[in-house]
Design a protein that fits this description.
By secondary structure, this protein is mainly β. The longest helix is centred in the N-terminal third of the chain and has 6 residues. Helices cover about 5% and strands about 55% of the residues.
Length: about 600
C-alpha cells in the first residue's frame, strides 16, 4: 500500500522495521556508507575506500566530484504511490552545534496521481577552525498514469546548495597526534585557511514520460521522451590569499565556474508481455561550461579561453525483459556527431525466491573527460589550464553479486585505460618551511592500463538474541605507478543484542560496531578545485573505529543514541580522513525517525 518507485521502475515498500541495515543508514547521506570515509564535520566530503562505488557516465560531466557525495542526482529521486498521506521525518544531531533534518511528505490525490515534496538541510559548526557546513537539498515532483497505464509520467525539480567553510586541514599533524593539551581542544590546532569557503549550487528540471500507441492492447508501440535541464556553479572564495596554492593575480580569491546542460532523449519501443521491450532512441546532449574572463599570454595571444561548449548526439538501442524470476536489460549507444562516445551495458538478475538472487553486469564505456579536467580558471596562477589533448577514458567492468540467506557476496573486475586524475606537481627547491606544503594540483592522464579487482563478502550469525554482522572487502590493483590507490582490506563488524520489552510495546537493539581499513596512500583533498588528488607522501589507515549504539522502536517511531569513535582517546591520535585532515573524535549523537501514515 506504500510503494517507493525508482526512475528505473524498481519498486520497494516503506519499511518501518528496526534492523541492523537501518542502523547503517542513520547518517547524513541516509544510505549505507560502507566504503566511504567521512571528513571531520557532517556535510563535508568523503574519501573513497571502495573504488567499486564509482559510477561512470559516458557524457562529459561538470566535475568537482568531491562536492557531489550529497548532491541528489536523477537516480536518487524516488517516486511514490501511497494509500494515505505519508510523511517521513528524520532528525539527527551534528558536530558541536547544529542538526540534520530530512522531511518528506507525499500524497496520492487520486489512485493515479501522486505528489511529493521534501527538504534535507544541515547546519553543523564542527570542531575545527573554519569548518561550518550549511547544505540544503530541496525536491518536489510527482507521478501520473492513466487508469490503463497508457500514459505514464514522472517529473521533479531539485534546488540544491552545498556550502562548506574550507580550512585545508591542519598545519601540524604532530600536535594532533600528541594527544596533549591544549591540542585535544581542536580549535587550538592551526589550519591552512581561516576564511575560505566553497559552495556548489544546482537546479534541475526533469521529465520522463511514455505513451502506448494502442489503448487496450499491452503488446504495442510505446513512445518515450526524457528531458533534463540542469544548471550548476562551483565557487571558491578566500578574502586572504594563501601561499598554499602559490602566487596569485589578486590578493582576494574568487573563482566561479558555471555550467548548464540540456538533455533530450526520444525513443520508440515495441512492448510485448512475453518477449519484453525493445527500444530504439536518439539523444541530444547540449552543454555550456564557462567563466566570465579570459587569460592572455605575455605576447597578447589567447592563453586560457573562457568557455567550452558542445552538442553531442547519439543513437542507441535498449532491451528490457522482466517476467517471473528473471529481469534483464541490454543497452548499446554510440555517437552520431564527431565525438568518440560509446556505451555497452548488459545486466541480468534472477530471483530464486525472496531471500536468494544472483546479479551479473558487464559495462564497456568510452567516456568523454569531465569538463574541469579540460578547463579551469583561478586567481591562483598555477590553477589555470586548458587541455584539448585529453583522450577518452576507456572502462571495462565485470560485476557478479549473489544475495542469499546464508551469505552476500560480490566480485568486481575493472580495466581502466587513459585514466584521468589530479596530481600535485609542485617540486620543492627551497628549504624554508612555508614552501614545503605548496600544492600545484594539475589534471593528468595515465597512459598505461590499470586493473582493479575487488571481492566483498557479508554474513550475519545469530545465537539467541545476539547477532554478529560482518562485511569484509578485499581490493587489489595492478598498475605500473601508484595512480589508483585503495586499502587492501576494509572491514565492518557489528555485535548487537535485540529484544522486545514492555509486553512487546518497545523493541530494543544495542551493540558495538568495529570498522577498520589497512594503511595506504589515500588521496588528498584540494578545496580550491573541489577534487581529490593522488599523493605518495603519507600513508594513513590502520586505526580502529568503534561505535556504541542503542536503538529503540515504538510503533512507527524510531530513535537512536550513538557514541561514535569512543575509542579515539584510547587507541592513539593517528586517525585521518586525508593526509592532513583528521577523522572525527569521540562524539555522542541522538536522532529520531518518525513515519506518519495519515
Amino acid at each position: 500500500m506504500y510503494k517507493i518507485i525508482t526512475i528505473e521502475r524498481d519498486t520497494t515498500i516503506v519499511d518501518t522495521s528496526l534492523t541492523i541495515q537501518w542502523e547503517y543508514r542513520n547518517n547524513y547521506l541516509r544510505k549505507d556508507n560502507f566504503g566511504l570515509l567521512a571528513f571531520p564535520n557532517d556535510g563535508q566530503t568523503y574519501n573513497t575506500l571502495d573504488y567499486g562505488l564509482t559510477k561512470f557516465n559516458p557524457f562529459p560531466e561538470f566535475g568537482f566530484r568531491a562536492k557531489h557525495f550529497s548532491y541528489q542526482e536523477v537516480e536518487d529521486i524516488n517516486y511514490y504511490n501511497v494509500a494515505t498521506p505519508y510523511t517521513d521525518l528524520f532528525y539527527r544531531s551534528t558536530q558541536q552545534q547544529g542538526q540534520i533534518l530530512d522531511a518528506l511528505i507525499t500524497v496520492n490525490t487520486s489512485e493515479n496521481l501522486n505528489l511529493f515534496v521534501g527538504y534535507k538541510g544541515i547546519r553543523s559548526i564542527g570542531k575545527y577552525i573554519n569548518s561550518i557546513s550549511s547544505n540544503g537539498n530541496f525536491r518536489i515532483g510527482g507521478s501520473y498514469n492513466t487508469a490503463n497505464k497508457r500514459y505514464v509520467l514522472k517529473t521533479h525539480f531539485t534546488g540544491q546548495d552545498l556550502s562548506n567553510q574550507e580550512n585545508g586541514g591542519i598545519l601540524r599533524p604532530d600536535y594532533f597526534e600528541s594527544g596533549e593539551e591544549p591540542y585535544t581542544n581542536r580549535e587550538r590546532l592551526e589550519v591552512y585557511f581561516t576564511d575560505a569557503t566553497s559552495i556548489m549550487k544546482g537546479n534541475r528540471f526533469f521529465v520522463d514520460h511514455t505513451f502506448r500507441l494502442n489503448k487496450d492492447n499491452p503488446n504495442s508501440l510505446v513512445f518515450h521522451h526524457r528531458f533534463n535541464y540542469e544548471t550548476k556553479f562551483y565557487e571558491y572564495t578566500q578574502p586572504t590569499r594563501s601561499n598554499r596554492f602559490g602566487a596569485s593575480y589578486t590578493t582576494s580569491i574568487n573563482n566561479k565556474t558555471r555550467y548548464n546542460m540540456m538533455y533530450n532523449m526520444v525513443g520508440a519501443a515495441y512492448s510485448n508481455e512475453n518477449i519484453g521491450m525493445l527500444e530504439f532512441y536518439v539523444e541530444d546532449y547540449n552543454y555550456n561550461y564557462f567563466y566570465r574572463t579570459i587569460i592572455l599570454n605575455p605576447d597578447g595571444s589567447l592563453g586560457i579561453p573562457n568557455a567550452i561548449n558542445d552538442r553531442i548526439n547519439t543513437y542507441g538501442a535498449r532491451y528490457t525483459y522482466q517476467k517471473d524470476k528473471l529481469k534483464g536489460s541490454a543497452l548499446i549507444s554510440n555517437s552520431i556527431t564527431d565525438q568518440s562516445l560509446a556505451n555497452i551495458d548488459v545486466s541480468a538478475r534472477y530471483d530464486f525466491d525472496e531471500k536468494n538472487s544472483v546479479t551479473a553486469r558487464y559495462q564497456n564505456m568510452n567516456k568523454l573527460p569531465n569538463l574541469n579536467f579540460r578547463l579551469y580558471q583561478s586567481d591562483y596562477k598555477a590553477y589555470n589550464w586548458y587541455r584539448d589533448d585529453l583522450k577518452n577514458e576507456k572502462i571495462n567492468s565485470f560485476e557478479i553479486e549473489a544475495k542469499t540467506k546464508w551469505v552476500d557476496a560480490s566480485v568486481q573486475y575493472t580495466i581502466l585505460n587513459d585514466h584521468l586524475y589530479f596530481r600535485n606537481e609542485f617540486v620543492n627547491t627551497i628549504t624554508a618551511p612555508d614552501n614545503i606544503d605548496t600544492l600545484y594540483v594539475k589534471p593528468r592522464q595515465y597512459g598505461n592500463t590499470i586493473n582493479y579487482f575487488s571481492a566483498k563478502v557479508g554474513r550475519e550469525f545469530r545465537v539467541w538474541r545476539f547477532a554478529l554482522d560482518n562485511t569484509v572487502l578485499y581490493q587489489k590493483v595492478d598498475q605500473q605507478d601508484k595512480i589508483l590507490n585503495v586499502p587492501e582490506f576494509v572491514t565492518r563488524n557489528t555485535l548487537y543484542y535485540s529484544q522486545y520489552l514492555f509486553k512487546r510495546a518497545l523493541f530494543l537493539q544495542t551493540g558495538f560496531t568495529f570498522q577498520y581499513f589497512t594503511k595506504y596512500y589515500g588521496n588528498d583533498y584540494n578545496p580550491l578545485i573541489g577534487e581529490f588528488f593522488v599523493q605518495e607522501e603519507k600513508e594513513f589507515g590502520g586505526f580502529p573505529l568503534i561505535d556504541f549504539f542503542i536503538n529503540a522502536k515504538i510503533k512507527e517511531f524510531r530513535m537512536f543514541l550513538r557514541a561514535e569513535h569512543f575509542n579515539s582517546s584510547m587507541t592513539g591520535y593517528d586517525f585521518y580522513s586525508a593526509p592532513n585532515v583528521p577523522y572525527r573524535d569521540f562524539t555522542v549523537r541522538f536522532g529520531v525517525i518518525w513515519d506518519f501514515f495519515s
